Amino acid sequence: MDGEVHKGETNLTWNGEGLEQYIQNLFDLVGGLERRVQNTQKNVSALRNVMSTWIKMPLFERRDGKKDTLLALDLRQERIQKR
Q: Alpha-carbon distance 22 to 29, whole Å?
C-alpha cells in the first residue's frame, strides 16, 4: 500500500494517464485492509466475551477463601469440568 501511495505521489498527475486505474487499485487495497481490520476487531471482541466468563470463576482458589492458605488443587478436575 505504501508503494502504491508513493507511486501516486511521484509519478501521477491529476490529468495523467492511468489515474483512474490507480485510484481503483488503491481503493481496492484500502478496502481489503479495512475488511481485515474489521474481521480482527470482531475476533478480538469474541475472545473478550469468552474470556469474560473465565474471569468470573477462577480455576484455582485458596482453601476457605483465606489468603494465607494453599491453593485447593485437589478440586482442580471438578472446577475444570464445571467450566
A: 11
